[in-house]
Amino acid sequence: MLPDPESTSRTQGIQVIARAAAILRVVCAAPDGMSLGQIAAATGLARSTVQRIVEALEQEYLVQAGQGGVRPGWGLRRLGDLPGPGVAAELRAPLFQLFKTTRETVDLSTLASTEVLFLDRFLSDQRLRAVPAVGVQYPAYTMAIGKALLSLRTNKEIESLYGKGALERLTPRSLRSVTALIEDVERIRAGGFAYDLEEHAMGACAVGLPILHAGEQLFGVSVVMPTDRFESHRERVEAALRRCADECAQRLASTSAR
Fold this sequence. Notes:
single chain; 9 helices; about 15% strand; alpha+beta; 5-stranded antiparallel beta sheet
């Protein structure tokens, strides 16, 4: 008897889901990051299979892959936050208000070594929008939210992350040196905004702010938009972003005081 194609397809589909679930379980158990080889060893799956599934999960924002390994993605974090408390859940209301005001992509992030780790995101609903590409690693100093987060570190900590020499540049507008980065960071610490003016990708700009609170973990929020809209929308976006960052700080302070 020939195999039933429908039954075979259903079995294969169930197998893929089971493998993806196994990968997500081990990744969530090691939020600081795992290599593909470590995931393969922990799940008993072939490394090539792990890589294919991780790539698919990253397309759905369920994991985030970078130099620090594979970590839980903001999409998975959002699903996990829905039933109960968490930083992303606590800050979702002001973040959504920022999204409603700007209609641009809004990111909530933290810093993991030299990488930006996205905790939550509202994607722009406009036809022309700016969203960081999946699978591409952007150094924190090339992104507005990365600079905002670095402003919460000391200059010595920044130098320990990147050294004191030239920085890798992703575009002709990326910062050239740690000295230039620290100058940017000092302006943010003095109450200014963090900017990405086509520094991580041509055609995309962003403005960001750190969320100032008494806790140890670092948080920042940013608005990402196409370059064509940046100057005309900048003043309105900055005002909305400032309100959002202030409210996020108040909510975190209230949460820590409970």
